[in-house]
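Supplementary Methods. Inverse-folding protocol.

Structures were first reduced to a discrete structure-token string of length 399. This string, shown here, constituted the complete conditioning input.
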């Protein structure tokens, strides 16, 4: 592996999404991420079907590229011994089990820190390791509701709650975990000691509410859903064109004046109801009503030509399939392919962070269940006969 984290050994004792996102971020940047899957069955995303690519879950393939995979039965002492040896030489552990589960198995923070004081132990959970909800299980949907996200998502008041279409608390928790891990590794450079990094889906949802929380803390009133509109700037939302939708972001006065010039609507610039951002926010319904027929007069493509020529921030509302083939997506390497031993060439998303000297890359397909068990155990000093015996006992799985 290449990248800025080359040489870093990460053990991913995690499943489904938040933990695997953290591992994926580190793996893309060059860390040797060893994914430890449970026996029997492996990661639950293997059963999140349809869709499948061949015999494999598309969800599993997406979340686990760039990782090596081993499979252990941690209910067996022999499986625990393998994990203990693996952690003894690792730099990072990522886990997202319910609070207390790994303590009962002998791999809680205290035990692992005693085994390897330099190891950074990252715990992801529904609500964090402290507080009255610490013992609760967590899911993205629950976190979105309790963090306030669902109260500000949707078309307007009086409608059913709507979650963000993507599992943003899961994904954000993984990104926060990766950030925390890197900070803890920097601290280890100074102290020589690892530490516990603790974040949650709940907090990941909360940090998505910076603007809305600013409003609530300042006014004592909770903002509600605004559809595609912005809670602090106007016009900053989607408008229907003659053949689709377009987003425009007039986030400051200069952009507003540029927008009305593009729309050839000087009367709007002179209208006192729209003279400032504060005035536009107070008269948002009237503003939208005035803008809608103007946008509907041309196609999305024509508006994009006009706005691009004027330097006005705007963009089409793309479907996922349209986004995946967009020229900018392709230019940024955000869709790449891996060679899978069973499926052949498999497309996946590329690394979102670019480095000038130590580029991130996707070099491995998502592992088959137990694909690298023999390889990793060999690195830990197990002889071939010992690995065969462990596989025969069911303590590990190989393929």
């Amino acid at each position: 592996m290449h990248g800025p984290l080359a040489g870093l050994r990460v053990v991913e004792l995690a499943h489904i999404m938040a933990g695997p996102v953290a591992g994926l971020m580190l793996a893309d940047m060059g860390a040797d991420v060893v994914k430890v899957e449970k026996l029997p069955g492996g990661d639950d995303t293997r059963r999140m079907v349809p869709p499948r690519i061949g015999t494999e879950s598309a969800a599993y393939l997406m979340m686990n590229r760039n990782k090596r995979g081993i499979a252990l039965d941690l209910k067996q002492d022999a499986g625990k011994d393998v994990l203990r040896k693996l952690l003894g030489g690792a730099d990072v552990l990522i886990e997202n089990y319910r609070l207390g589960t790994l303590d009962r198995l002998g791999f809680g923070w205290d035990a692992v820190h005693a085994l390897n004081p330099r190891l950074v132990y990252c715990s992801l959970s529904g609500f964090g390791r402290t507080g009255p909800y610490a013992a609760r299980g967590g899911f993205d949907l629950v976190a979105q509701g309790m963090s306030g996200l669902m109260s500000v998502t949707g078309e307007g008041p009086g409608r059913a709650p709507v979650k963000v279409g993507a599992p943003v608390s899961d994904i954000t928790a993984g990104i926060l975990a990766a950030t925390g891990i890197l900070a803890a590794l920097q601290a280890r450079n100074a102290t020589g000691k690892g530490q516990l990094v603790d974040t949650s889906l709940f907090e990941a949802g909360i940090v998505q509410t910076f603007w809305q929380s600013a409003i609530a803390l300042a006014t004592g009133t909770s903002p509600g859903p605004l559809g595609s509109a912005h809670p602090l700037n106007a016009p900053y939302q989607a408008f229907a064109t003659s053949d689709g939708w377009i987003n425009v972001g007039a986030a400051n006065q200069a952009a507003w004046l540029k927008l009305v010039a593009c729309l050839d609507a000087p009367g709007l610039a002179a209208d006192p109801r729209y003279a400032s951002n504060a005035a536009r926010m107070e008269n948002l319904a009237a503003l939208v009503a005035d803008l809608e027929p103007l946008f509907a007069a041309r196609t999305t493509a024509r508006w994009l030509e006009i706005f691009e020529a004027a330097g006005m921030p705007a963009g089409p509302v793309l479907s996922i399939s349209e986004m995946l083939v967009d020229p900018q997506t392709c230019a940024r390497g955000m869709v790449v392919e891996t060679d899978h031993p069973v499926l052949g060439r498999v497309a996946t998303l590329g690394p979102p962070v670019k480095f000038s000297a130590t580029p991130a890359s996707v070099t491995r397909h998502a592992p088959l269940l137990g694909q690298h068990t023999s390889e990793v155990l060999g690195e830990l000093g197990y002889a071939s006969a010992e690995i065969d015996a462990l596989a025969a006992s069911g303590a590990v799985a190989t393929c």
